């Protein structure tokens, strides 16, 4: 579901671990981008090769990406994949399994989009926040980082937290 924290978690994972890899790439909100721009970003991030906007990523470029991913320890995080791009992205990242040191992490709204392209053992489903977590998150935004409900607002806070049903973006 949108707003549950997939992008936030993807960014956090990337920032925590990217320095442990030889090269890394974070492809954010891929559903709103075209495959050519994503290929160019991968080429730049992983192979230190920049293409201008008029140039097209060719077969040699894709081979360079694949060789880099096989020969180096690579992290690629792909955020918010949709059905339109998963097929093209899976072609670009066909190296999967050829280098056990490299990792690809993808996020999407529906597992069905990824199930033919990724190992289900690596699947993580984002949980909703429980009532305590939801209240803490709401309070941190509504009352300048306090963990206590200001007097007179107890019922309003409870109603808002219940209405948001554990969805972080709504609580923020």
From TrEMBL:
InterPro entries: Apaf_helical, Disease_R_plants, NB-ARC, P-loop_NTPase. Pfam families: NB-ARC (PF00931). Coiled coil: none annotated. Residues 1-147 form the NB-ARC domain. SUPFAM superfamilies: P-loop containing nucleoside triphosphate hydrolases. This is NB-ARC domain-containing protein.
